[in-house]
Amino acid sequence: MHRLLSPALLGASLTAPLAACEVTPATYDYGVDLESVTLVPVATDEGVHPSTAALTDPNNPFADSGVGVETKWELLDAGYWPATFYGWATLTAEQPNGEHQFYTAQAAQQVYERRDCAPEDLYYVWQIAIGGYQAVLDHFPNDVTYDATGEFAYPLAPTAYAGIVSLGGTPEGWTLVTGEDGTQTVVPVATAPEEAE
Q: Could you tell me if residue 43 is inside a domain?
């Protein structure tokens, strides 16, 4: 079961650890050939809470069937990023939380960086990725995800913040603060210590 990669690995590149994974092509349990799914956004906030555009997107193979608890991790591990985006965007629309939002944004970032959509859609996918990470900060700043053992929780906010920066964006209303022990947290700008700005 895939969860969040180590924040140390994500510091250098959010995509390098994922690119190293080998993926075996497969037809999905829903009868969807994941490799054939193409991301064609119907809105610039598709997959970004509180939008529910993913549920009415005719290109979303999961809009009617939904995505199961184990299925979402299988989707993430499959490496077919347009299909992964649609699965997690469906979850974000139906069951909004930070974990669903984070992995939706991560899938959009993968589609953008791999140029896995039509050239005319790249800018919109970039907006969706940044908007998704920003939504983690704005709506789910205290949410976590778990490692593969299901025992160790990672806060999502610092990694969402790093995702925005890695895409060339600027996190709005939040700043990254490093504690004396090296732990990074994200806090609203209004409450950030002066030296962190």
A: yes
Count the domains in the chain: 1
Arithmetic mean of pLDDT, 108-120? 98
User: Residue 184 corresponds to which tokens in the numbers above?
Assistant: 């990074």
98: left (phi over 0), alpha (psi -120 to 50) or beta: alpha
Residues 138 and 110: beta-carbon distance below 8 Å: no
Q: Tokens 């950030």 label which residue?
A: 192
Bridge partners (DSSP) of residue 185 are: 177
In a domain, 128, yes or no: yes
Q: What's the domain range around 106?
A: 7-171
Q: pTM of this prediction?
A: 0.83
Alpha-carbon distance of 138 to 150, in angstroms, equals 25
Q: Of 116, 105, 120, which Cα lies nearest the Cα of 45?
A: 105
pLDDT digits (tens, 9 = 90+) for 13-23: 344 333 444 44
Q: Tell me if 194 is assigned to some domain.
A: no
User: Does some domain include residue 193?
Assistant: no
Q: Which two structure tokens, joined as six digits, stand for 183?
A: 């732990």
Question: Rounded CA gap, 30 and 20, in Å?
Answer: 26
Query: Radius of gyration of the chain from Cα atoms?
Result: 16
CB 14 within 8 A of CB 106: yes
Residue 15 buriedness (CB in 10 A; 0-12 / 13-18 / 19+): middle
- Count CB neighbours of 90 within 10 A: 26
